[in-house]
Every structure is written in structure tokens, then in C-alpha cells.
Amino acid sequence: MRISLDSPIKKVGVLLAGVLAASFYLVLTATAFLAAHFSEKPELADLQKAAHLEPSNAEYRYLLGRYFWLVQHSPDQAVAAYRDAVRLNPHQARYWLDLAGAYQLLGDTKEQRDALEQGILAGPTTPEVAWEAANLYIVEGDTDKALVQFRVVLENDPYLPGAALERCWRIKPDVDVLLRDVVPPLAMVDVAFLDLLVSKKETTAAAKVWAHLAQLHQPVEKRYVFNYLQYLIAQQQVDQARLVWQQAGYFSGLSAYQPSSENLVVNGDFSLDILNGGFDWLYRQSPEVSLAFDPTQPHSGNRSLSIVFNSAAINDAGILQIIPVEPNTNYEFSANFKAEDIEGAGGPQFVIQDFYTGTAYFSSEDLKDADFWKQTSGDFMTGPDTKLLVLHIARVPAGSPIKGRLWIDGVHLGAKPQPG
Predict the structure, then answer these.
(1) Which residues of the chain form CATH 1.25.40.10?
(2) How far is CA 78 from the centre of its chain?
(3) 317, 395 in Cβ contact below 8 A?
(4) Which residues contact 190 (CB under 8 A, 6 or more apart)?
(5) Looking at beta carbons, which pairs linking 255-262 to residues 24 or more positions away fall under 8 Å?
(6) Under 8 Å between Cβ of 25 and 6
(7) Residue 105: its pLDDT value, please?
(8) What is the mean pLDDT of residues 205-230?
(9) What's the confidence (pLDDT) of residue 108?
(10) To the nearest whole number, what is the mean pLDDT of the chain?
(11) CATH code given to domain 282-415
């Protein structure tokens, strides 16, 4: 449709309409700009101006409520402002959450609960709302609803699993129920749950959480495996420790660090980096002894372990390995060594002992007087209760000064074949 502007009156009319529309738009834009400008100022008068300029803007009402709550400590006025905010926009979970907080200060539990439930509807996956709701339900004794909200927290907040699980365990110390209904299939949550149960020495429950974690087949950092393994060893739970190490091979990058039926010593040729954890070699660096890989002196692989004794009085070389074994079983041990300028009475020796009782099963010859690679070996039978051995390099006699350099490689421990 074409509008004819053949008369001056029509032309003026169209021009005036355009000017009025532009003026109206400018007024709206200026009002919105001024309201936004005032809302950024932390003064009550400015926030009130923003709310007055744009009375339909829920955010400005919300900011007013926060001012009354946090600055003036006036929950009554905060409630009024928050109620205006949720009336204008009921879909913002944080509005309902702060309204519930204001009602809590007023001691109005019913209104607090109503506001939280509205917040849950507005933000069903908002962890802050779920956290507040869960704690309110705990106070009211509604355990089931609290657990439902804690699951929301566990699924959506990577920083709160520990605190949420602590509360879950306090109100429902049943690992089966929590794993079934509350703990989501997330490795980071299982790890937090495992740490909590270990701290409480809930060994049986921790084993169930580990089984849940293993079924997820999600990556788990090695340090968590090491911590759990250390706890199991301290609790003499050797069978569970062996299982954990085996399963962790699949999802913690430990598949190359598994013992075999031929050799129970992990990383016996030092071809892999030393983890200093789990069932790999454990070491401590000290000024008295220097440990390092040496690719210039290989024996069975591409490098050996160099141990330099720096003339100090020591009890051992500072490196060991914990090895799960079977009781009442014959084992054969062997290792290769090379020594240079070892000085001091006696010398270093490979020693194998029961990890818990200290019962000695094997001591090698002195690892000295060998400017070429030599093998030391022997066999022994474990005791009726022995499940864990410790292999280390002891200083004999203990506490004596020693100087020089030792290389070791090809460390081996295996069950001795039975006749027939």
C-alpha cells in the first residue's frame, strides 16, 4: 500500500509521527541507561532511582533486597524487595534463594521452605539452591528430601562433594543406600566419598565405594590410588590392596606397573619412571644417599639405578618396594649389581622382611667388590601369616658410614617351582 504525500499537511503529519517515535525511543533508551547507571552504584538512593526508572525490571528490585539484607541488615525490607523481584521474574533461582535466606533471619520457617521449593522449581540443577534446601530439610528432619537435594549438589558442583557427602553420611550412614540413591556416577564424587570413609576408618564401606568407582571406568588420578593403598596396607588389608592395584591399572595409567607370575617385583629393571607410591618403588632423597637412573651402566634393560653413598652413617639406601605374597610359599630372589669404590665396614645388602612383623627372610651378600655386573640370589619360604614383604637395601652394619657407588638392575622375585 502506497501512502500519498501530495499535500503539505500529510507531509507534516508523517514528519511529526517520526519525531514522536524517535523521541519515545530516545526516552526509553535514556531511561534504561540511567537505570543501569544508578544500579551499579552501591548507594541506597541510586538503587531506588534505578528501580523507580524501570519498575518492571526484577533485577533492580533484587539488588535493592540485597542492599537491605547485607548493608542495612533489615530482613523485613529485604523480603519486600525480594518479593517484588520474584513477582516480576519468578524464573531466577537466586531471587528465591535470597528470599528464603531473609525469611530464615526472620525465623519464618514456613515461608523459607516455600521460597526454597520455588527456587528448586526455578533452578532444579542449581547447586546453591539445592544446598540450602538440603540443609533446611535436615533441620526439619526430612532426610529423604535432603538426600535428593544433596544429589543435585553432587552432580553439579565440583567443589562441594566432600562437604555434601559428610552431611549425607551423618544423616544416613548406609553406604549401600548412598551409592544407590545419592552418589552420581562421577569418579570425582566417588573419590571424595572414598577419602571421607578412609578418614573415618570405615574400611568395609570404603571397599564398596572403590568397587563402585572401578565400575565407572573413568580416569582417576594416581595419587588417590596411592592414598587408598597406603590406608589398606596400614589396616593390613592386603588382599583388597592387591585388587585395588590391579583394577587401577585400567583407569589410572598403572597397567605397566603390574607384577607378573614370573616376577613380583614391579619395575625391576628400572625401565619405567619410579612412581614413589603404591606397589612401585618408594624412595626418599637425602644428602646421605643420591639416587638416579644411569643409562651409561645398563644390564638387562636400557638403564640401571645408581646409588651413591656420600660417606654418612646410614641404615639403608632410602629405596624399597612393598610386595604382596602368599603365606607358606617358597620364593626365589635374584638381582644384578655392580659396585665402585665402596668404603666402610661391611656393605649394602638386599634384605627381604615381613612388612608387619619385621621377620627377616633373606639377606644377600655384601654388594661390593664388583667392577663388573654380578648376580646375587637366594630362596626362602614365607611364614604362615605372611602376606606382605618389604624389599630394601640395608646398610650392614646399620648406622655405619659408607662411601662409594652401587648400581642395581634386574631385580626379581618369583615363586619357586615345586618338584613334580
Answers:
(1) 31-257
(2) 39
(3) yes
(4) 183, 209, 210, 212, 213, 216
(5) 259/323, 259/324, 261/414, 261/415, 262/414
(6) no
(7) 82
(8) 97
(9) 87
(10) 87
(11) 2.60.120.260
What pLDDT shows up at residue 36?
45
Q: Helix (H, G, I), strand (E, B), or coil: what is residue 55?
A: coil
The single-letter DSSP state of residue 7 is: S
Say which residue the cell 603404591 belongs to: 278
> Which residue type is seen at 238?
V
Per-residue pLDDT at 2: 55
Interval 83-104 mean pLDDT: 83
Query: Tell me, what DSSP letter sits at residue 416?
Result: P
Q: Which of 17-21, 110-114, 207-211 has the lowest mean pLDDT?
A: 17-21
CATH number of 31-257: 1.25.40.10
- Residue 324: strand pairing partners: 388
- Cα(151)–Cα(8) distance, rounded to whole angstroms? 72
pLDDT digits (tens, 9 = 90+) for 171-215: 999 999 999 999 999 999 999 999 999 999 999 999 999 999 999
CATH 2.60.120.260 boundaries in the chain:
282-415
For every residue of 364-377, DSSP letters joined together read: ---S-S-SS-EEEE
Angle, helices 222-234 vs 203-216, to 10°: value is 150
Of 160, 101, 163, the C-alpha closest to 136 is 101
Nearest to 36 by CA among 8, 13, 57: 57
DSSP letters for 261-277: SS--STTTT--SPP-SS
Decide: pTM greater than 0.90.
no
Helix (H, G, I), strand (E, B) or coil at 283: strand
Burial letters for 392-405: b for 16+ Cβ neighbours within 10 Å, e otherwise?
Answer: bbbbbeeeeebebb
The three cell numbers of residue 37 are 547507571
What is residue 286's DSSP assignment? B
